[in-house]
Each structure stands twice: as structure tokens, then as C-alpha cells.
Input
Amino acid sequence: MMLRRRDVVSELLKNRGDLLVVAGLGSTAWDITAAGDAPLSFPMWGAMGQAAMIGLGLALAQPRRRVLVVTGDGEMLMGIGSLATIGVQQPQNLTVVVIDNERYGETGMQRTHTADGVDLAAVAEACRFKNALTATKDVAAVRELIYKTPGPNFAAVKVADDKLPLVLPPKDGVLLKARFRRALLGESADVLPEER
Amino acid sequence: MQPDWPAEIHRELAAAGVTVVGYVPDAGHKRLIELCQQDKSMRAVPLTTEEEGIGLVAGAWLGGHKSVLLMQSSGVGNLVNVLGMIKVCRFPLVMIVTMRGEQGEFNPWQVPMGENTARVLDTMSVAVRQAGDPQTVAAHVHTAIGLAYETQGAQAVLIAQRVIGIKSFQEQRDQ
Output
């Protein structure tokens, strides 16, 4: 029995506490929304390839908070160099989880490179991630990485290539940014720096 | 006497409270990169491609920190699609770009992007400030940081190749 992506993401975000979450465009943005939209989630609608780097910027700015990037295999492949960049910075509070259905889910389910054996966890390990694993049966070990283990951590979770109903987050970028900053930094985040 | 413009830029960044400096190396940025690496209040982050800098800047601002990106003009060409996120989310963005393909260029492959750097940025709604001589560089950076963070806008300072003054491969390697 293959894992199902919505079950996986719901399980990873259960009792998320003050976890900061960035989701790559497409299916993973819908997955985190299906699990429950929240101000401390930043679902992307574009900028393909940048989810892990947004996670890095956030992790460097907020070293006392745990940061989770959840993205798709196609999105991760487009920004594969960011794994090397993260490996150099070694943020202990960052975990990158790829929900890997081996398909480009928004464009007609074409095969991605992982369908032909490209091993993203091995890439992450080679890029000096402290922990890197591939999960196929359950995600207990992935939860451990996200909430407890010093990183940088990486997990590829192999899932079925289901086509699921869309569950859309807000799409106004200014709203997504502003609500995240207000929830994280307080209302002073709404005020521009010189006015504080 | 020429002003020490890399040191002046570094002072502007420090005074503005910039804590994250993303960069793809360029000979023209060599000294500024070193100054940022040596500054304990800054985190210098080498990138594999300029595109990564846009994600870095966005994430840092979500976390409440100011940042700046350093790159060469050719790197601007790597940014086009991801600048869309800066625009739709109104993320503050400050880019300091050293120009190639201008006065003194020795490599024809640098010319097409150098000739179109300002146009590409303008097309993607990044305000362009041209620093054509060493005396004006720091003032342009000061203005760019102020406008980026006070008005939530995207700003680029282009430092002309004649300011950098590199005229051959050998000079570049000897930097």
C-alpha cells in the first residue's frame, strides 16, 4: 500500500505548535491547506524552485523556531542547487520534506526525474544535510526530523500519484506575507521599520 | 582620490541593519563580499544561482530580517520568473549589481545581458538606480535600502563597469 499525500501531510502537521511552514506551489500547497490553513503557513503560487530557499531565509532569521518546507519532487528538482546552499549554511532548525509522487501533478502527470531513479535523499546527504531519508511506509521518522532532530534534515516521502480535489489557500501574496509576519512577529510587523 | 566604495556600501548595509547577504561572486564585489563575511552582525550566504537569492530574501523578511543580494549583471538574467513573487507579495528587495558588457569589456559573451540588465529589471518592476561613478555608489545604495524597506518595493543599484575598472581576464584573476 502506497502512502497517500494528504494523509502524509496531515500527519506531519498534526499538533504543529509553533512550527513555521513553507509549501511549494501546486499539490503541496493544496495539501497543507487541506490539513488546515494557518497564518504561520506560507503556501506558494509561483516562484517554482524557491521553496527550500524561503525555508533557509526563514530558518536563519528565526533560529529558535523549527521551520518545515514541504514541497513536490518537481519543485525540488528545479531548485536542486538550494540543497547545496543549505548544506553550507547548516541551519539546525530546518527540515525539507519532498512529497514525491514522481510526477508533475499540475501539468498532466508527466514523469519527473525521480521516476527514473534520481534519489533526492542521496543528493541531500551528499550536500551535507545532517539527516536524509526516504520514507515509503510510514512517516513517524519524518515527524521526528521535523520536530526534534537537529538539522538540516531532509526526507523524501514516496506517495501514490493520486489526482485529488483542489483545496486552495488564499492567493493574494501580500495577504499571505502580512498574515505570516503578524502571526510570527506581532502587530509591529505591520508597521514599516522607521515608524516602529 | 577615489572613494572606497565597497567599504561605503558595507557601512550603509550595517547602518540599515542588514543581517543576511546573499551573493553569487563577481570580481567587482570581491572586497564587499569579504567585508560582509568578516562582519559578525551579517550572515554571508553563497548561492549556486542568483535565483536562490530571491527565495532567501523572501524567507528572511517573513522572519523579520533585512537582506541584500550581490550579483553580476549576467545573474539578473537568471531572476526573471522569480521576481514575479517579489512583485505579487511586495517583498522588499535590494540588489547590488556589478555591470559587465560596458566600457572596457573584453568578453563578447557578457555583452547581451549587460546591454539589457536595466531593461529586464524594469520589465519586472524593479526600480533601477545607475551608479556611474565611485562618488555616487553609497548614496544610491542608501536610497535603495530606504525605499525598499519603507515602501516595500524592489530596488537595484547597477554599478557601472568603469567604476569597477577591470579590463582583462588577467586583471580579473589578479584581483
User: Anything to note?
Assistant: Chain B touches chain A at residues 17, 19-20, 43, 45-49, 51-67, 81-82, 84-85, 88-91, 149-152 (CB under 8 Å). The radius of gyration of chain B is 15 Å. Strands of chain B lie at 18-23, 43-46, 66-72, 93-98, 127-131, 154-159. DSSP finds nine helices and six strands in chain B.
